[in-house]
Amino acid sequence: MTEWRNGIAKITLPTPFPVGDVNVFLVKGERLTLVDAGTNTEESWNSFVRQLNDLHLTPNDIEQIIITHHHPDHVGLLAYFPETLEVYGHPYNQRWLTITEQFIEENEAFFVRTLKEFGVADQFLALKGVFRKTTKFSCNRTLTGHLIEGDTPPGLSDWKVIETPGHASSHIGLFRESDGAYIGGDQLLPHISPNPLLEPPLPGEQDRPQPQLQLNASLKNLAQFPIQIVYPGHGDDITDAGALIEKRLSRQHERAMQVKEWLKSEEMTVYEVCQRLFPHLYERELVLTLSQTVAQIDYLLSLQEITMINKEFPYRYKAN
After folding, report:
1. Cα–Cα distance, 148 to 135 (Å, whole number)
2. How far are the Cα atoms of 167, 252, 294, 301 from residue 193, in angstroms, in the given order?
């Protein structure tokens, strides 16, 4: 039964993705605010409406929407709301919310180039079309306004924005200092570490983001806040944020050190490391496992623990 708790109501919606259900949150403030919006499917919308009814509300009662990041399971239901409803988020969301054919083609070109850089077998090049297929679960929307570090969102005077790039370049969270509540999107999840997903370069830049380094910095920054409870994008509420952050950072470091050990004995491409890290999963979930793998390579490079030993595709790495 959906219910209010400290002015927040969690609504859990189905998704078509391996991650499973997604959490969105209603927040009482000067405006009734929905934080994140589920996936663009009729099943998700019907579930959303039913759970609003439990709160004696309808979609028309929602006065604004804030999105933590641009992934389809967090923005898709924006397609069901009227264009007049105000929507706020980080400016980096926009290119993913109004997806053009040019952006799709740029994304696919980035994907193909990256697979060649990583040394991935040509048989997987057809996966470049995955992004195009997932756009049907998203939306076509223009942000009303932007939210960046330190902002107070309109209609939520008790809350502050924390920028938390890593899982997505567009990622933000909302912190309420009065009781330590944090609506965190996918930055910190109770049962799994969020995937530092690869993205094409940001507008005006040439190099791709390094999402693992961003995620680590975001987690370390978050640990400085007196958070009492995290309302995450997936799974149950988190009441031990500090300990979980330490666990996530430690586990990632251990995985990277394992990769370094392999690179002591042989030079490897990202794809070869991926096959060893995820022997039973990489073929089925290549994009996710490659993201996790290059995350360790980026991290080791940042610590100067490994070196890229050639300047032509595919890149190979060895331990120092």
Report:
1. 25
2. 10, 9, 15, 21
Q: 92 with 109, same domain? A: no
Token pair of 66 as six digits? 């804030």
* pTM score, whole prediction: 0.96
Please, are residues 92 and 202 in contact by the beta-carbon 8 Å criterion? yes
How would you label 169-191 residue by residue, b for 16+ Cβ within 10 Å and e otherwise? bbbbbbbbeeeebbbbbbbbbee
Are 70 and 153 part of one and the same domain?
Answer: yes
Per residue in 60-73, pLDDT (tens digit) is: 999 999 999 999 99
Work out the number of other CB atoms within 10 angstroms of the CB of residue 193. 19
Measured distance CA(320)–CA(312) in Å, rounded: 20
Specify whether 166 is located in the same domain as 260. Answer: no
pLDDT computed for residue 237 by the predictor = 98
pLDDT tier at 54, thresholds 50, 70, 90 = very high
- What is the CA angle 51-53-59, rounded to 5? 85
Give per-residue pLDDT as tens, 82-135.
Answer: 999 999 999 999 999 999 999 999 999 999 999 999 999 988 988 899 999 999
For the chain, what's the residue count? 320
CA dihedral 89, 91, 92, 96 (to 10 degrees): 70
Give, for 304, the enclosing helix (H) or strand (E): none
Sheet holding 4-5, edge to edge: 4-5, 8-13, 22-27, 33-35, 64-66, 86-89, 145-146
User: For residue 23, what pLDDT band results from cuts at 50, 70 and 90?
Assistant: very high
Q: Where in the sequence is the domain holding 179, given as residue range(s)?
A: 4-97+139-239
